[in-house]
Amino acid sequence: MPSGFESIFDAFDSLLGGPFQRGGRDARDGAHLGLRLGITLEDSYHGVKKRIALKRHEGCAACKGQGTKSKSDVRRCSTCHGHGEVVQSSGFFQVVTACPACGGKGTILAHPCPDCRGDGRVRVQREIEVSIPAGVADGMQLRLTGEGDHGAPGGRPGDVIVEVEVAAHDLFARHGLDLLVGVPLGVATLALGGEVEVPTFEGIRELTIPPATSPGTALRLAGLGFPNLRARGVRGDLVCVARIEVPRPLSPAYEREVRSLAEIEARHPTPRRKEYLAALSAFAAEAGRKPVS
Ligand SMILES: [Zn+2]
Ligand SMILES: [Zn+2]
Question: What's the CA-to-centroid distance between 109 and ligand 1, angstroms?
Fold first, then answer.
């Protein structure tokens, strides 16, 4: 990969100022090119190098970008006398338009280069390497400075703006810097606690489920999330969300055990359930709302 790959921070900063703004561009400068690049969530976690094919304008080798083999071939346009524009009269109006004979350039090539038909540039297929930094998120843009269309002689090349598209993952979702995974657990594991295996992009890890874990509890494995692109050493976590899964259908044995559990639950409601039942009866009493039963 040639020089000129700015850090992602520069890329963001320059894009924040408005895309495609780079002070003092002129007509000879090459155009910026935009493209999308799809990567996996795991690629975005580790970072990845990708080769991408693109078509861009480059200076014509046959005429060295001049559009013709010899300088003496460049003639002043006789239609516009080198001004590049012509005045046309139509009735009372005078309209200034780009000279149709020279296309506004003011010069004519008697023998244009056959390779580029006098344009000085040809369209070529190139492969460039893109370094996607670890931590990049869906929709972020990277700027590859100078990898866009080459300019006319004296002009600067444009940039390539790569928009990263991160594909959805079967197991994980991203939230900020955190990586989220839902872990289905049985009633007994939630109540008694235990060790379960969880996937991470660094391999399989053991997760300790503490006793008396309610569904929806987020259990963190520190540092197994995405790195912060703007703050070195700062990473998100792997957030394992405890989910409950009740067997369906219930086996007779399971049902028997759970029925004895149900008796205990009825005799000893949990603190939040108690609060809820109190609030429910207050709500029902208010304005004469009747309980359903
Ligand atoms: Zn002309
Ligand atoms: Zn040429």
Answer: 11
Same domain, 126 and 265: no
Ligand 1: centre distance to CA 89 (Å): 17
Å from CA of 122 to ligand 2 middle = 7
> 211, 221, 207, 206: which is closest to 190 by C-alpha?
211
Q: Can you give the residue range of the structural domain that contains 129?
A: 1-16+26-56+122-168
Q: Assess whether 176 and 237 both reside in one domain.
A: yes
Q: Which two tokens stand for residue 87?
A: 């005045």
Cα–Cα dist 123/127, whole Å: 13
pTM of the model: 0.74
Extended beta strands in the chain, E state: 33-39, 48-59, 74-76, 85-90, 93-98, 107-109, 121-132, 141-144, 160-166, 172-175, 178-185, 194-200, 203-209, 218-221, 238-244
Residue-wise pLDDT tens digits, 169-205:
999 999 999 999 999 999 999 999 999 999 999 999 9
